[in-house]
């Protein structure tokens, strides 16, 4: 694997959890020309702005980490925003990259692209073989469209646009909103605040039985840079050209109950756990088959407990921004 550290690399969504981790990873490897743009300077929902940005800058690679994301409640409450904004972001960036002659791009999707009842662990070829989980179907459809955009530009124009499908991510810069966050930041905040109040129990949504695979965002960033850095022959030799996406995960899952118990240990909450089965569980299990990525030379290295402890430390250092 060879890397040109002087290439201009645009990280779309650099302020988000995944984008900021990719920037950290690129910096640690010695990349010297990392291009970023905040929403005040570049609204990725606006086609004209995105086109002008790509025409103005001489970009060699793009990491498309920008997205509208949220947990079950957010997806249920704002389905129109989730499908519209994600479709606009990926369409505008991928088309603008092509117009500007950018040959290499990495699109970051989500494991929710797979059917709700897909065989576990979920392989890449499970895509479009069954019904999606209803609670996040609009978001999943937008991510599937992103994969197909990359495949189509590769097939028609000879681009090298790759897609990685991460499992459930967590880590520094996550969204710790009390209602619109994913499961790990929601649990970390809930257990932390319960500890401060001296509560005797914490209520966790759902039955606690669903199983989830969880990946620290720094592992995700490392995998993304690894996949982007593979030479085309190595990549295509291990990837069906008509199935361009690659799963990224740990290959290990746990129940929501086990996750909540680990969060209680990490945060130091001494009380009881109560599960509210009247709340939605989501998919019964989401475990990725990561054998393709292992064949390409990468596997996760951060354990769940160590990753949760790292995330909790970051939350404690930045909790003032989440008050209210």
From TrEMBL:
NADP(+) binds at residues 13-19, 108-111, 143, 166-169, 182. The active site is at residue 139. Substrate binds at residues 190, 205, 212, 281. It catalyses: GDP-beta-L-fucose + NADP(+) = GDP-4-dehydro-alpha-D-rhamnose + NADPH + H(+). Pathway: Nucleotide-sugar biosynthesis; GDP-L-fucose biosynthesis via de novo pathway; GDP-L-fucose from GDP-alpha-D-mannose: step 2/2. Belongs to the NAD(P)-dependent epimerase/dehydratase family. Fucose synthase subfamily. Its EC number is 1.1.1.271. Catalyzes the two-step NADP-dependent conversion of GDP-4-dehydro-6-deoxy-D-mannose to GDP-fucose, involving an epimerase and a reductase reaction. The record marks 110, 112 as: Important for catalytic activity. The keyword Coiled coil does not apply. InterPro entries: Epimerase_deHydtase, GDP_fucose/colitose_synth, NAD(P)-bd_dom_sf. The gene is fcl. Residues 9-229 form the NAD-dependent epimerase/dehydratase domain. HAMAP family: GDP_fucose_synth (MF_00956). The keyword NADP applies. It comes from the Bacteria. Keywords: Isomerase, Multifunctional enzyme, NADP, Oxidoreductase. This is GDP-L-fucose synthase. It comes from Halomonas flagellata.
């Amino acid at each position: 694997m060879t890397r040109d550290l002087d290439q201009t690399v645009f990280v779309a969504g650099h302020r988000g959890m995944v984008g900021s981790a990719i920037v950290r990873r690129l910096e640690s490897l010695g990349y010297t020309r990392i291009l970023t743009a905040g929403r005040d300077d570049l609204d990725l929902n606006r086609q004209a702005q995105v086109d002008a940005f790509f025409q103005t800058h001489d970009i060699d690679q793009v990491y498309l980490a920008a997205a509208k994301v949220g947990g079950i409640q957010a997806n249920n409450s704002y389905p129109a925003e989730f499908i519209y904004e994600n479709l606009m972001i990926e369409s505008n960036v991928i088309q603008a990259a092509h117009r500007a002659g950018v040959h290499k791009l990495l699109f970051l999707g989500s494991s929710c692209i797979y059917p709700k009842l897909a065989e576990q662990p979920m392989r890449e070829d499970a895509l479009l073989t069954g019904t999606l989980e209803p609670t996040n179907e609009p978001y999943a459809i937008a991510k599937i469209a992103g994969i197909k955009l990359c495949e189509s530009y590769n097939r028609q124009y000879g681009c090298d646009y790759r897609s990685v499908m991460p499992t459930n991510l967590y880590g520094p810069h996550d969204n710790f909103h009390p209602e619109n966050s994913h499961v790990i930041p929601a649990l970390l905040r809930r257990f932390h605040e319960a500890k401060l109040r001296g509560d005797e129990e914490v209520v966790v949504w759902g039955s606690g039985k669903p199983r989830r695979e969880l990946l620290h965002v720094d592992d995700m960033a490392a995998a993304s840079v690894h996949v982007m850095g593979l030479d085309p022959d190595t990549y295509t030799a291990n990837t069906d050209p008509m199935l361009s996406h690659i799963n990224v995960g740990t290959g290990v899952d746990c129940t929501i109950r086990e996750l909540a118990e680990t969060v209680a240990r990490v945060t130091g909450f001494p009380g009881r756990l109560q599960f509210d089965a009247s709340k939605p569980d989501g998919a019964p299990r989401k475990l990725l088959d990561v054998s393709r990525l292992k064949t390409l030379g990468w596997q996760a290295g951060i354990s769940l407990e160590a990753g949760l402890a790292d995330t909790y430390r970051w939350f404690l250092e930045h909790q003032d921004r989440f008050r209210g």
